[in-house]
Amino acid sequence: MAWYQEWFGEEYLELYSYRNDEEARQQIEFFHREIGAIDGPVLDLACGIGRHLQELAIRGFHGVGCDLSFLLLRTGVREYGQLPVARADMRNLPFCSNSFGALVNFFTSFGYFATEEENLTVVREMARVIKPGAPFLFDYLNVHRELSKMIQKETRETPTGTTSIERWFDSSDRSFNKRMIIDGRRYLERVRGYDLDEISVLFTSSGMTIREAFGDFDGAPFDRESPRLILFGARREE
Ligand SMILES: C[S@@+](CC[C@H](N)C(=O)[O-])C[C@H]1O[C@@H](n2cnc3c(N)ncnc32)[C@H](O)[C@@H]1O
Predict the structure, then answer these.
(1) How far apart are CA 191 and CA 44, in angstroms?
(2) For a substitution probing ligand 1, which of 51, 53, 109 has the most ligand atoms within 8 Å of its CB?
(3) What is the dotted CATH code of the domain comprising 3-142+195-235?
(4) What residues are in contact with ligand 1 under a 6 Å CB criterion?
(5) Whole-model pTM?
(6) Which site in 105, 115, 129, 196 is 20 to 30 Å from 232, CA atoms measured?
């Protein structure tokens, strides 16, 4: 099994429990402020348990989620009630072309695949399912900061047990790797680190334009020290 098929379960939710509803509320508030007019539903690509879908609904948006993890989608139903979600792989979205008015992709839900072609396929799928002119928000890691601030080894206590974490950057495929050992069970997180120039090439070659790059959800501009790389853009008009 690929790492992303194994990792996004109970232990993931425990380790990242600080990625909670309050954070989603602030992020959707920022999205609402910056996104402008939207004509149609908003796709939350890799929605996880649906914490952003819940906040979109509170603000009157029609959100639709898509995620591969059955466990996370099921946890979302328990947490928030029924939300419109599809279980699918982001490389092959089960939606018609031109069907969404906007797209969001939060918390580094990109760069998961073994080949560049597969990661590019995801961007092409994003562009395919949104309407011409439809805006997107893409929230991703900042490679410069991740490299300079990397903590190579640490231990954390969570309700599921002691988690030991090891991190490294693999320059052969430019991936950020995180090995987690939780009560003897081993998990991996592996994300291809694209910098702003590389991401821009992926998006522009897939029919999207990038309007602005932020470095955090407080609206600060992006620079090499920023906690995040948050892009706003749109699919090009035909
Ligand atoms: C870091 S989590 C972020 C979840 C959510 N966006 C959030 O902010 O809470 C990444 C998400 O990507 C999903 N995912 C991983 N591989 C996927 C794939 N191949 N297709 C669709 N979703 C995938 C995981 O199940 C997980 O929910």
Answers:
(1) 19
(2) 109
(3) 3.40.50.150
(4) 4, 8, 19, 46-48, 51, 67-69, 72, 89-90, 106-109, 112
(5) 0.97
(6) 115
